[in-house]
């Protein structure tokens, strides 16, 4: 599913030193006035001292989707036809293992299946509504071997069943190796970055280094690594890759699917590649804090020159904002039903006659810990409850809870 976006001409070459006058020797000595370099960072700088600091101009740059994962509830009767469709489009055979539990993104799945290249499926047993919770995960090894239109068809069919995209990895393979690891680390050490709060790095067994921008558990995490090391020389490129999760992944996928191949015709693959690349570079930013030391609004600070030129190379940037999670009474009730109520019933049954006193004591302690956020949520829940239950809700709950005093 490689998407050849464009050949990078010599005029599009990217400088890696940060400024036109900065020399290679200056580049290896970061200004750490506001950052005390620890022993691990010293080791990292030493490791990267021999890394690429030169531009290989005129080399191609490619973008592709490197991981897709979907989860959600579907009708039990749709499960096996859907698995067969996934097999057909990915050209992978799923070895199903009914009854063998596997850990999924939404909890414990009772049944699972896997292909030789790592396509994974897991599902729960059918519930009383005839539905089962399902997880389908498709790694980059499979996606890179597929035609781009087949990937689009696969994503559309999975969404049509009611599943939601919970993970999407978008990757840029830069065969010109324009981003210098050493320049990036020096930039991180002096905190010339935004759009992510922290950074980290890991060494691989093969001798490579991966730099992470942001928490790996967040809904958006970008990393930079030498793909030649990971692929054992098969892909001689630096890879800049962003993992989108949760609702951000769904948003990125839907926007990508809006690029219609019937309307765009022959430029569809190029436009698709541009969109994916813009989404990756839009997830991070490298800025010059020294230009305006007193500026608090980081969006007003200019980008570092080498990063500005890389963004120009890929055609711009797109920043996907994480949707605000709205807490509702219905969602909270469903969460407690799945996660806590059965445990609470077990405790109450075990305590017997002492259950009432224990329960009231626990409620008093919880009530004492409520803060302003909880009280605001109480008002929201009360309005929502009254909104769809009208006066019967007040009468039904009035014997047990004083909603007016709670609000």
Average pLDDT taken over every residue: 80
Profile the largest sheet.
11 strands, antiparallel
Please give the number of β-strands: 15
What's the alpha carbon Rg, rounded to whole Å? 26 Å
Number of helices: 16
* Count of domain modules: 2
Tell me the helix content: 40-55%
Q: What separation lies between the terminal Cα atoms?
A: 55 Å
Write a brief structural summary.
The chain is of the alpha+beta class and about 400 residues long.
What does this structure look like?
The protein has 407 residues and is α+β, with helices and mostly antiparallel strands. It folds into 2 domains: 1-325, no CATH class; 329-406, no CATH class. 41% of the residues lie in helices and 21% in strands. It contains 16 helices and 15 strands. It has helices spanning 24-27, 39-48, 76-90, 140-143, 148-160, 181-189, 227-230, 246-257, 261-264, 268-281, 305-314, 329-339, 341-351, 355-368, 372-398, 403-406; strands at residues 3-7, 60-75, 95-97, 102-104, 107-109, 111-114, 120-123, 131-139, 164-174, 193-194, 199-203, 209-213, 220-226, 238-245, 285-286. The strands form 3 sheets. Strands 1, 2, 3, 6, 7, 8, 9, 11, 12, 13 and 14 form an 11-stranded antiparallel sheet that branches. Residues 4-32, 53-57 and 391-407 have low confidence and may be disordered.
């Amino acid at each position: 599913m490689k998407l050849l976006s464009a050949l990078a001409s010599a005029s599009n070459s990217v400088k890696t030193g940060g400024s036109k006058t900065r020399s290679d020797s200056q580049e290896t000595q970061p200004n750490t006035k506001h950052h005390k370099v620890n022993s691990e960072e010293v080791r990292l700088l030493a490791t990267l001292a021999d890394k690429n600091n030169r531009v290989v101009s005129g080399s191609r740059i490619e973008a592709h989707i490197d991981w897709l994962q979907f989860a959600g509830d579907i009708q039990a009767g749709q499960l096996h036809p859907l698995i067969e469709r996934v097999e057909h489009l990915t050209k992978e055979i799923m070895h199903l293992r009914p009854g063998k539990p596997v850990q999924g993104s939404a909890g414990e799945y009772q049944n699972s299946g896997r292909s030789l290249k790592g396509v994974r499926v897991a599902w729960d047993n059918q519930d009383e509504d005839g539905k089962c919770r399902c997880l389908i995960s498709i790694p980059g090894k499979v996606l890179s071997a597929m035609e781009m239109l087949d990937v689009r068809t696969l994503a559309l069919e999975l969404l049509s069943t009611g599943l939601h995209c919970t993970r999407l990895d978008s990757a840029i393979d830069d065969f010109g190796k324009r981003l210098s690891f050493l320049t990036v680390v020096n930039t991180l050490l002096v905190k010339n970055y935004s759009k992510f709060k922290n950074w980290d790095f890991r060494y691989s067994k093969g001798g490579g280094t991966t730099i992470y921008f942001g928490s790996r558990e967040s809904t958006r995490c970008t990393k930079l690594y030498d793909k030649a090391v990971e692929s054992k020389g098969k892909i001689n490129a630096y890879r800049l890759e962003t993992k989108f999760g949760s609702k951000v992944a769904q948003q990125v996928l839907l926007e990508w699917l809006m690029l219609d191949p019937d309307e765009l015709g022959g430029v569809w693959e190029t436009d698709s590649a541009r969109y994916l690349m813009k989404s990756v570079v839009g997830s991070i930013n490298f800025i010059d804090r020294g230009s305006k030391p007193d500026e608090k609004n980081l969006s007003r600070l200019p980008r570092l020159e080498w990063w500005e030129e890389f963004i120009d190379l890929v055609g711009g940037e797109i920043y996907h904002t994480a949707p605000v999670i709205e807490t509702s009474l219905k969602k909270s009730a469903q969460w407690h039903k799945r996660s806590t109520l059965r445990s609470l019933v077990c405790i109450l049954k075990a305590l017997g006659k002492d259950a009432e006193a224990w329960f009231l004591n626990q409620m008093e302690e919880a009530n004492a810990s409520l803060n302003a956020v909880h009280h605001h949520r109480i008002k929201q829940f009360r309005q929502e409850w009254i909104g769809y239950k009208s006066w019967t809700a007040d009468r039904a709950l009035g014997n047990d809870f004083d909603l007016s005093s709670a609000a």
